[in-house]
Specification:
The protein is mostly helical. It contains 1 helix and no strands.
């Protein structure tokens, strides 16, 4: 029974590590998405500035 408890505890620690890694990856994806959106929002201004150079 003690071995089973240790296995359950080890499994829970493993699940905790996996959940933390998934959370960290989700934060990274969210930050990259925000950066991409900011860049996309700058494109119309850049296009207008280039059109003014003609």
């Amino acid at each position: 029974m003690s071995a089973s408890s240790q296995q359950v505890t080890a499994s829970l620690h493993n699940m905790k590590s996996i959940a933390y890694a998934a959370f960290s990856n989700t934060e990274s994806v969210a930050a990259a998405s925000e950066e991409q959106l900011a860049t996309m929002e700058e494109i119309p201004s850049a296009v207008n500035a280039l059109n003014c150079l003609k």
